[in-house]
Amino acid sequence: MVSGPAQTWERVNVDFGYVGDKAKELASKPYQAPGSGNMPQWMKDLTYDQYRDIRFRQGKSLWAADNLPFRLQLFHPGYLFKEPVTVNECSATHSQQIRFTPEFFDYGSLIKERGEVPPEVGYAGVRMLAPLNHEGVFDEMIVFQGASYWRALGKEQRYGISARGLAVDTGLDGPEEFPVFREFWLRKPETGAKSLEWFALMDSPSVTGAYWFTATPGDETEVLVRAVVHARREVRRFGIAPMSSMFWFGENSRRRFDDLRPEVHDSDGLAIRMGSGERIWRPLCNDSGRLDFSFFGMDGIAGFGLVQRDRRLAALEDDEVHYQDRPTLWIEPLNNWRNGRVMLMEIPTAHELSDNVVAMWEPAEVPKAGAALAFAYRQKWTKNPDPAAAGGHVVATRTGVHEWEPERRTVVVEFAGGRLAEIEAAKPPAAVVSLAAVCGELKIKVDNQSVQRMDDGRWRVSMRLAPVKEGGKLADSSEIEMRCSLKAGDDYLTETWAYRIKP
């Protein structure tokens, strides 16, 4: 177990039931904010640069002395992270709180003075390491810091998209609620272990929850999540497996920015595999200048995620932040998720510094006050361009207006993969295209539709959007929903491209 100042331990087997009992008991009591009463003022006053200058000492990594296959490091409290997080190490027989000690940290040169720190101050989060890229070299595998957020990495990946434990009242009028993980229990790994296991206790004014995690690092790192959430009070929107990412602009963007790069994004689309087997691809967009929502209702879901599909360096042209190495986050339910919808929220942004895209599963029935909801899912942090399933998929969305045809908008969708490579150019597949008005009357039609095989094997569907009425204008139309897929005979060859556009 951990050595350090005033360490205390108890004889107990920490498991999912143990943390579940704590969550249930916590739900029966009025909510109490964790506060920062034990935190000294100098920690609260840390600037961004001062906080970044505090580093965990590599030689103090937990489990390093025992030469175990994982390492544990801790985040210093202070700056924005003023609510304490209790961190425990546990085994099959014991649990021990890891009390705060300055000996874990190198404070750098920017902090000139610091006072005494009570050991009860807690931490700001945890960092777990594994030999992801090179044998014997321990890289960050997963990080929990702030509310219930975490980020994970597989081999040769860079941090991008974030996950969180639960979304409460996201995108509604009034403030969103952000549940927090108040306490962690990290199970000390055995020699030769391939996976790391830990538990977390969630709390907020509306919910409490017990979470059980297992992470297995690799080319794609897999995280299994099991949770039981108790409702203190009924909420209006309840989001399971929420994730946040960034999309500034891509090849489909009409709203351009003064930037040297062709595309800037951590993710460029939402992928869904419905319980029926249909696959949907929704390219992300940042054109409208307003908060946008898209909902995909279904009776059963096999998976969904925000995907970084276009990883070409020629498309991203950024060898500093490596957007081509940002992971896709793919969710697969492990219990029965019936009757609900995937929600996509897109927030307008004028830069790349903030996450502006949120996706989550919203069950049709929200737990009422006093009720509990259990769910489980698998996360894959991967570079797979088509995690929904192997097969034909969208590789590009393009749109534009020719100046000699101002009342015709050309939309191009390009597909590749799966059985498309076997089809001869002289016998093209059929494009199945549909339009629907987001609200009001549909005032747009499709004309001049074509399907063409490109020299590199892509199949391009080109279509023009035109006013239904003779002499009408594109500007007269409200937003429309477009869908497109390719089929040969009765067989669908591709996922369904689903796109919202203002003609």
Outline of this structure?
With 503 residues, the chain is mostly beta strands.
If you had to describe this structure to a student in words, what would you say it looks like?
The chain is mainly β and 503 residues long. It has 4 helices and 34 strands. The radius of gyration is 25 Å and the shape is elongated. The termini are far apart.
Strand and helix layout:
Layout: E1 9-11, H1 16-27, H2 41-44, H3 48-52, E2 55-56, E3 71-75, E4 86-90, E5 94-97, E6 105-106, E7 125-134, E8 137-145, E9 149-152, E10 162-164, E11 167-168, E12 180-187, E13 196-203, E14 207-216, E15 221-231, E16 238-245, E17 247-249, E18 264-265, E19 269-274, E20 279-283, E21 292-298, E22 301-307, H4 313-316, E23 328-333, E24 340-346, E25 357-363, E26 372-382, E27 393-401, E28 409-416, E29 430-437, E30 444-453, E31 459-467, E32 480-488, E33 491-492, E34 496-501
Parallel strand pairs: 4-12, 20-34
Antiparallel strand pairs: 1-5, 2-6, 3-7, 4-5, 7-8, 8-9, 9-10, 10-16, 11-16, 12-13, 13-14, 14-15, 15-26, 16-25, 17-18, 19-20, 19-22, 21-24, 22-23, 23-26, 24-25, 27-28, 28-31, 29-32, 30-31, 32-33, 32-34
